[in-house]
Amino acid sequence: MFGKAMSRVIRRATEWLGESLANRFSALALMITLVIVVPLGAVAYGIIHHLLSQKIEAELRNVVALGHYGLEQALRELNGDINSMARRSLVTNAIGDSEGRDAYLLPFLREFVAAEPRIAAISIHDYRGRAQITVGSGRLLEDEIQPLIEGVISGEKAISTDLRSNAGDTRLLIAAPIVFTPTRSVEGALSVEIDLPALFGRYFAGAPEHHRVRLLDGQGREVARTGDNTGEQNSISLELDESSGLKGYRIEIGVDSTVVYQSMSLLALGFVVTGLLTLGLANRLSVRAAERLTRGLRELSRAAREIEESGDSTRLYRLPIQGCDEIATLTLALNRMMVSVRGAHEALEARVEARSRQLAETQGRLAAILDSLRDVVYSFSPDFVSVLYISPSVTELTGSDMAQSPDSPFGLTSFIHPDEREAARKAYLQVLSEGYGEQRYRIVRTDGEIRWVRDRFHVVLDEEGTPLRIDGIVTDVTEKVMAEEEQARTETILNMKNRALEASCNGIVIADMTQPEAPIIYVNPAFERITGYSASEALGRNCRYLQGSDMDSPEVRALRHAIANERETQVVLRNFRKDGQPFWNELSVSPVRDPVSGKLTHYVGIQHDITARREAERQTYEWFVRLETIFTLSPDGFVSFDSNGRLAFANPAFERMSGFTVADIVGLTLEEFDERMRVLGDPAEPYTPAGVDLAENYQDSRRRHRRRTLPMLLPAPRVLSRSVRRVGSNNTAFVLYYRDVTRETEVDRMKSEFLSTAAHELRTPMASIMGFSELLLTRKYDENRTRDFLDTINRQSTRLTSLLNELLDLARIESRAAKDFQLVRQPLGAIVRDTVAAFMIPGDKRSINLELLGELPEVMVDAAKIQQSLVNVISNAFKYSPGGGCVELSSELQEDRIGLRVRDEGLGMTPEQCARAFERFYRADSSGNIPGTGLGLSLVKEIIEIHGGSVDLDSEAGVGTTLTLWLPVAPPIGDAAPAETQDQGAAAPVLENA
Hints:
- The protein is α+β, with helices and mostly antiparallel strands.
- It has 27 helices and 32 strands.
- The strands form 7 sheets. It has a 6-stranded mixed sheet with strand order 30-31-29-28-26-32. It has a 5-stranded antiparallel sheet with strand order 2-1-5-4-3, sandwiched between helices. The chain has a 5-stranded antiparallel sheet with strand order 11-10-14-13-12, with helices on both faces.
- Strand 28 and strand 29 form a beta hairpin.
- Helix 3 (89-96) runs antiparallel to helix 4 (101-115).
- The longest helix is centred in the first third of the chain and has 66 residues, at 21-86.
- It starts with a helix and ends with a strand.
């Protein structure tokens, strides 16, 4: 509806402007007034509005500047203090000291919170993100803090800040990682809660009336505010510096726009009223001036319309002339012009009539000449609109009487062959610029016959050089063109045959069978390259000169027989080049007969040098034999699939790994093969089909060497490594490669467990030592508290020293391969008594029940190492008997070895624990209540095995443990057996410490 109304208004305005020059003049004057008044008013209003906006913005910046700086500075100081706190060694050491950290860390954190009123709460979190110590009035829940803590613990951020809300209370949470300096690893996190709205109100509580200050986050959400202005806001924003920890946050201050721009609204109303009055006055004055100026033109226009309607130009002589201005001058000039036009028109008519008579006589003579020609003469206008003339011979050429009724502006265009019409059209158009043209093309007669014509044409110019017409002559050249095409076709065929012979990579020989000895009459360049003989050296000779000494081979006899019977044949001959080098020649010979008599005239031989192919076949066979030997002897398994996706080969190593025979699995598809292998796998770990690796290999060639580990249970527990490789360009042919990595996998697992346990055992006592020593260095305590701290430090230092000594013993034994053992022939009884005596400390209530043989044999041992082993075993018996009970040491002699058996009535072990008892750092008691490093039994086993002995372990949970050390007995010296020293104390059943 609105569109139609606008269309009507525009149409009426257009009609009004077209009615008279006066209307257009008044409209132009009104537009000029608008162009001057409106921009001047808009510029003035814009300048005043800009100055007022700058004034408001400056006032707002002055109001917010001090608070903005204060809030940034406060947050920057908090970030620095928190980051410094997280790096304090007192905090980093406390993460590893779960037992004693409360004694020295809680007082330190309480003092820090009390000294910093901006902090509401502070927490210490372990490496799993769990809060261990919290000081202050924390409002946030564990699940609200957890994501931020995980971010700094994972190492994604050096320090992280975020806002969290709980029950309408907004808190700023700052988290910093706690880094253990020696290893630079993140061990936990320090989190601090800050009441951000309260901190914000501290700096912006005194905002002026009609002002509102807000703190906005990165998404524009309000975090805190002061002031109660809710009207339309004129505001500015100041970004908080990134160092404050609130990246993307900004402070927005606004003032009520209705108060600020009240004066601007009154000024705008005044501008509008003044402009409307000015436009009305200008429109009235311009209409009156336009009517006065165009009065004469209206009279002249009315008279011109009357003359046009009547068609009588003589009425111009009576146009009234008023005054002497431009309009009067125009009227006088129009009257005189009409007089001149009338005279020129009458003279031109007489001249045209004379020229027409001359042209008619000339055309009559020309038509008589053209009627006698066989060639077609034509003429058409230079604008290609109409045909001026076509001679009657066009009927003989085209079969159509175009001389009477031409049907095309180009004369013969409708008869031109469709494939050549575009070229003919371009040639006609080009003649206008060049003046002359010639072309040859085909035409199609009305009876369907195709004829070749030659068309020559040129441009005829008038006296002034303007194109007057285009004349041309068309000649039938069909017979000439056909003769040229036949000659060209013959020459092309001969050239192609000659080039084919010359370019052939096979040697071609033609022998004349009508002459004696059948001489060679033609060889191509390929023959020269293959044999080394030039054409001049080969022509006139029989082909047998290439055979050398191989004149009676089966192949040569077969060739002679075929030639004698005038048949074609193909043989492989060993020929010789000009330099004497042999080469293998695949020769095909064919007879050529006379087409009339059928008599044999020539033999054509085609040579193919297959020496390289013969050599490649020989090398391929050798490589095949080598690869078959390698696959047969390889300890790694190979399974290949052919281009049809069927299993084609498996080597003996794979048969041993899988328990399958080649006959069982040959012909299987990849899916069927994967199902067979899945049955052999460990059900606890899902089997990955080989098709998955094959698809990844096809999509990403960089994964072609990726190895996948497959735990297997059958036919024996082992771990296999599998990789896939495609063969050649056919994506369906591929090879599976299997390798037994059971030992490597086990070694990697043991190494990882050893490093993890060793690091934990070393750090635990070190954390306590550093934590308590730092407290002693930074604060003063009374004598009893100080002694407790020193006792803890001494106890943990002793534990650390013992652990390091045992590690060094193991490392020294393994690295030196028992080279530092001093093996001496000595009685075993003395070694046992000295070891037991070491436990007889006065005041110790522990006792050992000895049940040794009356006479112990001599052994070749290092006494210190054997004593160390016994001490470790007896110590374990006492430690793992927390409820007391008897510890018994007995001996047993078996042929060439002696056993020392230690039995206790302590905690005992389960079968699973017994299986891992000799692993390094493994402890049956995981509660931490029984001291120890888990290295004792490992060290005992290493020492006993170096002496050529073994260790037996028998234990039952809740009953006790029996551990036996077996050592080889020293061989006798000469014929006399050595005298054993009688163990005087063997008869006593119990030895007790006084």
